[in-house]
Specification:
By secondary structure, the chain is mostly beta strands. Helix content is 14%, strand content 42%. The longest helix is centred in the N-terminal third of the chain and has 25 residues.
């Protein structure tokens, strides 16, 4: 093979390789693929321990959507902990958990709790319900008061999370979720 033929062979090989790379890029495979646009969303929900695939923590949003945080900080790995978070949806990630939408956490916070000493009170409005009247007179409407605490006049000590994002038909008290509750 003379030099001219070698040059033509090299040009052909380089051309074939270049054509293959271009085809891979155009068809979405191989060396370079363009990833999906990263979507940032805000969620409010509850950290939940999922006992599958060796166990892991997920976040179940208030609307029921399941999110799988890829980088949940250790201090938030508590089953039942209320959180608000800004996350990036990671459609480009596959996990072994096969549960929830994978997300990368941008920012995460736990709502502040309020300590309440007060009395469970039956309120005879809108069909009747139970509230907590704090010792200072503040009225709290627990959204999740356990059945065993639904006793008019029962003294309680509670940690509650104020839910400013919730509207109720009761039109009484500040809506709260119970973080901790015990008889006083």
């Amino acid at each position: 093979m003379n030099i001219k033929q070698m040059g033509i062979a090299v040009i052909l090989v380089v051309g074939i390789i270049a054509a293959g790379l271009i085809a891979m890029v155009v068809m979405g495979g191989g060396l370079y693929t363009r990833g999906p646009a990263q979507q940032t969303i805000g969620i409010t929900g509850t950290v939940t321990y999922i006992d599958l695939e060796g166990g892991f923590y997920g976040i179940v949003a208030d609307d029921g959507t399941q999110y799988l945080p890829l980088d949940l900080p250790e201090e938030f790995r508590q089953d039942g902990r209320a959180v608000t978070a800004e996350v990036i949806v990671r459609d480009d990630v596959a996990t072994i958990q096969q549960w929830g939408t994978p997300v990368e956490i941008v920012d995460i916070n736990a709502p502040a709790t309020v300590a309440v000493n007060g009395t469970v009170t039956y309120i005879d409005l809108e069909g009747g319900f139970y509230g907590i009247v704090a010792d200072d007179g503040t009225q709290y409407l627990p959204l999740d008061l356990p059945e065993e605490f639904r006793q008019d006049g029962r003294a309680v000590t509670a940690e509650v999370i104020v839910r400013d994002d919730v509207a109720t038909i009761q039109q009484w008290g500040t809506p709260v979720e119970i973080a901790a509750l015990e008889a006083a």
